[in-house]
Amino acid sequence: MACTHKDVVFEANANGWVPSGSRTALSQHQEHPARLPAVGLGHGHKPSGGYVLASDRDDEKDGLCQAITPGVLKRGVTYRVAGWISVAAAEEEVGNHQIGHPVRVSIRLGDGACAVVDGGAVWAEPGRWAEIKGAFRLRESPRSAAVVHVHGAPAGVDVKVMDLGIIAADRKARFSYLKDKTDKVRKRDVVVKLGGAPGASVRVVQLDNGFPLGSCINGEVIQNPAFVDFFTNHLDWAVFENELKWYWTEAQRGQLNYGDADRLLDFCDRAGKPVRGHCIFWAVDGDVQQWIKDIGGDRDQLMAVVQDRIRGLLGRYAGRFPHYDVNNEMLHGRFFRDRLGDDVAALMFREAAQLDPGAALFVNDYNVECANDPNATPDKYVDLVRSLQRGGAQVGGIGLQGHVSNPVGEVICDALDKLAATDLPVWITELDVGEPDVALRADDLEVVLREAYAHPAVQGVVLWGFMQGHMWRQDAALVNADGTVNDAGQRFIELRREWTSNARGRLDSDGQFMFRGFHGTYVAQVTTPTGTKMLKAFTVQKGDAALVLDMDT
């Protein structure tokens, strides 16, 4: 979807840039047409080729700035930052084929203490243009001029900026587009057929949607009747917030605690909810328990406890968890790889696949869908998956955690498109949408859920909690502490209702009744003119041809 001119609230003028930094120098250039990128997500047109180069930078904060016309930016509006960024290699980096640097776009507000709002980030490489796809929202309308600031690369690295702009997100237009996309991705034609009974009445009721929605749970929330009520009535899957993590099951070496996980698993079994296994390992140093860090220098001993963890966990629960997050957040941590070598990541997958061959083994990480983290770009995530696969890892899915704020649908979709190139299913595994204003939170939640539901690569969404006072992010609740459902929770319920197909009608002269329904399980009832009733359960799955439900068989 290309943006319209009325959506663009700021377009950088090549002559309007000013340097930031005591020695930073700016100059204007024209890129060779052969080196221009294709049409990008932001402006919807081919890049102009004209760019500004910021050189002689002495600090990461140095770069280039341009003022935004006062009164243009409004509170509560979601804006996306669009444009192209590149860098020139520092002199000492020439010949290094792994050159690349983070470059950030910030919105500096002149009010008070000069607040700074993150406008996105890219991983920029010499000779290549990276598209900036950030987003932001202001809590208050600026009382004075705001400034766009491009910076972030190390000192000595020249930064190039082309066609930078700020665009107001048009959610209504996006949702309209997604409804057509959703119809193609999540629906199928169904023909109910019964011979010799033209005019018979037909009633079709959808029992479950084929697209699962779930939530994390813990030992405390399953004792809360209001939580349990919402969970059992509106959610399909579960994941344990902490109780399966290594630091929980073995806080002290050799002292195993699976009782908490067992109790949660029993609760989910009684409720009929499948559970994601989160997680076997965690790659980030700060989430590794101290006793493991204490033996980190002894390679053989560390490898032994890694093997014990895999065998102990999957040997105990084989067949109980349809998914496992194997080594959580590998884009942001290297604890085990730094001590045991890069191949240990693939080894974890290989060992897990042998012990529980029926489980889908996931990578899982954050910020990939947000375009604000140079360490977690979709391209880097795909590279990680490919690397694991080359090492023999049976990667069965890609987890996007989904800890988001002011989401933009086009940015999320762009990330999903890139991940879909792996041909692996994608799940949003830890969704929480942080926004103090609950009405805006409802809108933000709708953005993420509609993008996920409309994308063919996405196979499910799991919330990282939903009840106030029982969540990692307290401004993301769908249910208030007293059990009342807030605006965000109502929006969630409304979307689930929208994605449910019920149909009524009569068989035509050929004994057929056709409807188009969302994927999922159904029951059909046909009542003949003589009063005979016939019931039949069926499942609508993905398919191009119409599903024929013959009530005679």
From TrEMBL:
Keyword match Hydrolase: yes
InterPro entries, from UniProt?
Galactose-bd-like_sf, GH, GH10, GH10_dom
For this UniProt entry, the molecular function terms from Gene Ontology, in alphabetical order, are:
endo-1,4-beta-xylanase activity
Listed under GO biological process in this entry are: polysaccharide catabolic process
SMART domains attached here? Glyco_10 (SM00633)
What Pfam families does the database record attribute to this sequence?
Glyco_hydro_10 (PF00331)
Keywords of this entry: Carbohydrate metabolism, Hydrolase, Polysaccharide degradation
Chain ranges of the GH10 domain: 201-495
PANTHER family for the chain: GH10 DOMAIN-CONTAINING PROTEIN, GLYCOSYL HYDROLASE
What family name appears in the similarity comment? Belongs to the glycosyl hydrolase 10 (cellulase F) family.
Stated name of the protein: GH10 domain-containing protein
